[in-house]
Structure formats: structure tokens, C-alpha cells
From TrEMBL, chains A, B, C, D:
GO molecular function: asparaginase activity
Record protein name field: Asparaginase/glutaminase
Binding site for substrate: S54, T85, D86
A Pfam family annotated for this UniProt entry: Asparaginase
Organism: Sediminispirochaeta smaragdinae (strain DSM 11293 / JCM 15392 / SEBR 4228)
First and last residue of the signal peptide: none
InterPro entries, per database record: Asp/glu_Ase-like_sf (IPR036152), Asparaginase/glutaminase-like (IPR006034), Asparaginase/glutaminase_AS2 (IPR027475), L-asparaginase_N (IPR027474), L-asparaginase_N_sf (IPR037152)
Transmembrane domains' residue ranges: none
Catalytic machinery residues: T11 (o-isoaspartyl threonine intermediate), T85
Domain L-asparaginase N-terminal: residue ranges: 2-160
Length: 179, 179, 179, 179
């Protein structure tokens, strides 16, 4: 089983600069996360595509990610894209529009809190994405917080800080209006 | 989505007794593990069935677990059994023999290193079991170390300290004989 | 043994706001740190004085800290002030100028990396400050990174990100000029 | 500042053997602990003397430790001995009897819970021992749980699982008899 992981930056990869006293996207922490997991018989190709806050991503960045996905398709049994949550949906929709006939699962994940924090959700989400890579049927997904959400129609729920399908958001909104 | 988690003890739940200076099965750490995960919209019923090293389990213990599985079936969308790894296969086969027509996934998991240790695999395995509970088709499985293994025929690989299917073990063994 | 701990904010207490995606001084993490330590027979009075990045402290803030130190003196065997590192020296000198005849140790500490980060120096520094509170002779000190540094003359070494005495800084600087 | 650390095993150094499912004294975790601390300008000589549960130490072991202490004296500004808590007092008294005129602090420390456990006191105690090595006057001490206890007369309090002076134990015992 061969999985390609493309890292692009995002909250999950923010690290603390002690001189500046601030959080930055400078490098990926993926290898540290992978070292803490037990993954027998799994071959991982890690491609560090960029290191960007996803709010700063422009069209050219999404085109680059798309190119890397296409390059990885013939040599991978699954692809995971580690991405900032703010525009994860946009990149997911972009891949969904452009790669119609994927025969493998393509999974976008990230975190609400950087991995370097003690109570980050990064380890959970990477664990889930790697598990989904093994068991999900072909398609484009967001994986986070115990959920496998198929594109199109996945959005960030900025109130409860997780991802949901468009349907779920509408249902919650309808219930709140009724109440 | 309602998941029932049955805890039975095992390595994952071993805690350190500072007076005796030794590891014991006295209580479950499941709630601590669950608190560290983000599980929106998931309803978890936790039933602490017993707190035993699985090497000390007798037939009556397995019958009790089977009774608890049957009791949980009508009220659960998935069942997770947290179990010692030494006889996890035996309990899995027992459930497989006795519950033929399950309409939900029944997942056995555990850990090679107690949760209380810094570099335990417990969090990874519980994360994976909870994800499998969401996405697996009906059946009996062992979930550990990035793998979803369907019963019958799952065994503990005592050399590499993980679980494998009977087929995989035979393949490894054949390769070693050839080499 | 009664120790008063005054928290004022600083890097050590920065917490991550998932909605804003940024670090903030909003509350103190001191109680979480203390819970992780074994401190038999120690009575701790914790006074949360303010929650500020020390670069934003004004004279009125330092006067307030001084007032709290004076209020704590008669009821404490030692005083610890948890403070941002950027102006820790300034507050230390201010206390040194104004409290000449302290009969107990008054210790300033903080951290270069917020406690919420996995590899923070916060736990080390608080552990050391609590130990110094037990064993140091009366005086005003900075405690951090295995060192007990008496005021006056303690400064932040912005190159190696630790605190040093004025003498040490001059020695390092002279050596570098020679080399 | 040069500190010699002699490791001898004990609870602090117990590691988990996944094949046997049990705790063992096989190697020291000291270097992992030291890597997590910030210790500028400190030169540490680490001598791994033995790896024993201190209940299994015999006279010859204590003689060996004594020889290593004597060998370290001329090249060290302080000596730390990492030791099992069960017979730490015995080794401390032995050093006190045999090394009367030490001109440096000699500090015994250990832990009630192995370092490999998440909520171990090992990091606290090593942090404190390293700080005491910097600030304590010449003598033989036990350092643990925020306390610097001078030999002779230090004993393990098996009820509250910490170290105390003989006097403190008698005081507690007298109070309990009165009550």
C-alpha cells in the first residue's frame, strides 16, 4: 500500500518562533507526527509542496496542488493533502471539478490547532486520514474529527470549528430558526 | 450515531501502582482517551464490563462479553470492544461464531503499550476504531495500527507486535523459508 | 511554607484562540502547571494580577505588581512573579529599587515558549522557581533555565534566548570581539 | 559548571517491554530527559553505572557507586546520583559515612513513577536536582518533590510516597498518636 502525502502548510503546521514570539508557516511537522504512529507495511511518499497559511493561497497555489495530485495518481493507492482549514473546501472543490474519474481516495485534512500544541487535533486527524486512505472507496473527501465527508459540498462550520456537509449545515440552521 | 464501547481491561488499561511499583488492571482509562478526541455528533455509551489481563480471561468472561455485545446490538450503530491483545483473536472468533447476522460493525481493539505511557499506541488505535465504527460495513473486525482486519482469521503477530490476517502470516512465513 | 505566586501574563501564559487562529494573553495556565507537580507541604496563594504581553506593560502595571508584592510580603515565605520575558528585567529592577530590605526571596520567572506547546520551557522554569523559593536566601532574582540570577543587573540575552547577568553578557561580547 | 550524573537504574528508568508486557531496568532514559531541558553553559558528564531495581542492590553495588562518586569528585562542581527510591536512603547514608569532607553538593534523586509514564515525577525531580547542583552548599542531599533534604536522616515516607527527614516523620507520627 503506497500513500502520497502532500503538505501545503496551514494551522496544523504552524510553529512557534521564539525570537519573534509568533506562529509561522515555515516547515512541516508531518514527519514528527508519522514517527509517533505505528504503520506496518505502509509506504509513504511525502511531498512538501508549500508552507502557506491557506488564507494566503492564490489560484496558482491551487493549480500547483492539482498538478502534484495528478503526478501522484499513477504511483499511489491513496493521496492525502494536509491543508489549512480556512480554504480547504475551496481546494477540495477544485480537485473535485478537475479530477472526475479518480480510482483512488483523495483525502484533505488539517487541524484547528497547530500540532505543536499539547491539545491539538492534528494527530487525531492524520490518524483518521491514514485510516481512511486504507478503507475509503475512490472519491474526494475531507477527513477530520471522526468524519469522512465526500466532496462536493463540504464546508467549514466556523461556529463549532469542524467540517460538515452542506446538508448538515442547512439542517442545523433550520432547527435554530424553528427554535 | 450511537457507539457502544465495552471495556474489558488489557494492556491498554494497565495503570501504575506507585506503592507496589507494578502495572495493574484496576480501572479503565477510556474516558481520559475520549476527552482528548474531537467527536462532534457522536453519542458514546461506555460499559465497563471487566478489568482483566486477557491472559486471565476464562470462558465465562467471553460469555459475559458476548452477552454485553448482544445487549448493545439493538441500541447501537456500532460496537467497539477494548480488549487485551493476547486473547483478542480468541474473543473475536467467539463473537464471529455466535453473531452471524450482525447489521453493524463490531470492532475489537487494544494496544501493545498501556495508554499511560508517553509513546503508547492506545490513542492511535482508539481513534482508528472510532473511525472504523463510522465507515466500516457490517461485520466483525480487529482494528489496530492503520488496519481493518475482518474475522475470521485474525491473529496476533508476536514477532512484529501487531495483528495480521492468517493469509499474511502464511505469506511472511513462506517468504522467510524461501530466503 | 507559604508561597505567593503573582501571575501577570507573558509568553508562558499565551493560549491559542482557534476562531482567530492566534496567540493571546487571556488567562493563566498556572493552575494546570501546578497540578502536574508534586509539592507536599507547600501552601500556594495564587494572585492573578493581570494577563498582559509584557511589551504592553506601562508604569501603572509595574506599580500594581509592586503593590501586590508589598501586600504579599507579610504573609509569604517566598514570592514568585510569573512575567513576560521582554520586560522581566525592568520589573525586576523596579522591585529591587523599591524593596531594599526583603527578608524573603522574590523570584521572577517566565518562559520563551508558551506552556501550551509540547516543548515549552514553562514547566522547567516554574519547577525551578518553586525550588528556588525553598532554598534561596533573601533577595530579588530571575530564575530560568537552571540558573538563579540576582538583581540588579539581570538581562535577557536575545541571541541565545535566556537570561544572564550583565557581567556574563560583557564577557561573551569581549570574547567575540577578540575572536 | 561541570556536573557528573551517575545513573544506577530504579523506578525512574524502568521501561516497558512489549513482548513480555512488563516493566524492566534495562537502560537509562536520562539523555531523553536532559534533551527536554534548557541548560545553557552546563557541562554534563553522564556515567551509566548500573541498571538495577534498588531493592536488588547488594553491598558490592553500593561500593561501586561510592567508587564512582570518588572518581567524579575531582572533576565535578556537583554530583547527581539517579537511584531507585526503595534504598536511596541507604546509599545516601553510605556516602555520608564515607565521604565526610565533600567540597561540592552530592545529590541523590529518583522518581515514584517511571519517566516513560505521562504523569511521572521524573522530569520534576531531575530539574530540581540540576538546580540544587547549582545552588546548594557542599553536603549530601536527597532532592525530590520541591525539597532539598540533607543527609543523615533522610527516609522514604511510604505512606505519602515522598522523602522526609527523620524529624518530620516523628512529628507526623506524634501528631497522629495525639489525634
Amino acid at each position: 500500500m503506497k500513500i502520497t502525502i502532500l503538505t501545503t502548510g496551514g494551522t496544523i503546521d504552524k510553529t512557534y518562533d521564539e525570537h519573534a514570539g509568533s506562529l509561522r508557516n515555515e516547515r512541516t511537522v508531518l514527519d514528527t507526527i508519522l514517527k509517533s504512529l505505528r504503520l506496518p507495511d505502509l509506504f509513504i511518499r511525502h511531498v512538501a509542496v508549500m508552507s502557506k497559511d491557506s488564507l494566503e493561497m492564490v489560484d496558482a497555489d491551487r493549480e500547483l496542488i492539482l498538478r502534484e495530485v495528478r503526478a501522484a495518481l499513477p504511483v499511489s493507492d491513496a493521496i492525502i493533502i494536509v491543508h489549512g482549514t480556512d480554504t480547504l473546501s475551496k481546494t477540495g472543490e477544485c480537485i473535485y471539478q478537475n479530477i472526475q474519474d479518480s480510482t483512488i481516495p483523495i483525502i484533505l485534512t488539517g487541524a484547528m490547532r497547530p500540532y505543536e500544541f499539547r491539545d491539538s487535533d492534528a494527530l487525531q486527524n492524520i490518524t483518521e486520514a491514514l485510516f481512511a486512505a486504507k478503507v475509503a472507496s475512490p472519491g474526494i473527501y475531507a477527513v477530520m474529527h471522526n468524519r469522512l465527508l465526500p466532496f462536493p459540498g463540504v464546508v467549514k462550520d466556523r461556529t463549532s470549528l469542524t467540517f460538515r456537509t452542506q446538508e448538515e449545515i442547512e439542517k442545523i440552521s433550520t432547527n435554530e430558526t424553528k427554535a
